[in-house]
Amino acid sequence: MEHFYNHGERRTYLIGDAGYPLEPWLMTPLPYYPQRSRQYHYNEKLCKARCIVERFFGVLKGTWRCLSYQRVLMYAPDIAGQIVNACAILHNMRLYYRLPLDMEENVFLDNAPADHIHVEEEEEVEICRGPRAVAQRIQKQLMQEWFPNYVCAWDNE
């Protein structure tokens, strides 16, 4: 994604959890904010999207054991991406032709994300330029576009 961002792609983002740093191409959750704020709704939508992706990966890993972490196969990132894409295509074909999914029942519980995100607050550091400042501006712009009817908690600080 960083490569695509650096080559002009500005409306596609990866979604990360709080363990990842905010980047212009990687959106991460914010520290706790009040329920009626844009920041709160941004976190809710981000968490919901991550849950959907993680559930889908759980389905793929449960069906296609080569994707499971127990069967470590080392490939270059481009080959690994092709393998994941092939598994997703095969999964969609199984759905289209209504073939049964033979999966373990607990596949969804292996990587079940928490229902709510809690992000530890970091020290407030004023960064005026650089990738993090760009990422913060992008994050703020996304919140303004997606949640225009909610109050921005930053305006109250």
TrEMBL record:
GO terms for cellular component: nucleus. The keyword Nuclease applies. Its cofactor is a divalent metal cation. Pfam families: DDE_Tnp_4. The keyword Transmembrane does not apply. One of its GO terms (molecular function) is metal ion binding. It comes from the Eukaryota. Residues 11-92 form the DDE Tnp4 domain. InterPro entries: HARBI1-like, HARBI1_dom. Its main location: nucleus. Signal peptide: none annotated. This is Nuclease HARBI1. It comes from Temnothorax curvispinosus.
